[in-house]
Amino acid sequence: MIYRFGECTYDSERHELWRGQQKIAVELQVREVLLYFLQHRHRMLSRDELLEACWRETYVSDAALSSCLSRLRLALERLPFIGLARPARGGIQPRAKLALLG
From the DSSP assignment, how many helices (H) and strands (E) are in the chain? Predict the structure, then answer.
């Protein structure tokens, strides 16, 4: 599946994040979290849900998730109009308009 947001494209089959013609380097775990956000873009996600979905058979601390989210935020901040919002009622949600391309 290809997701387009702003000038950016994320190819979930190739696990590649692009801004125009420039590939944005992010770690595998960060890409997995990004993909989970893109797949569930219409709702807020709890930290527990992210831990269960992205670290299925591995125990990781809340600090590891925080670190991963920080790296994702840093990657997304380089991109216009993209980021993670924390609505007042809790959870984490992408704040970008997305289009599915295939």
Answer: 3, 7
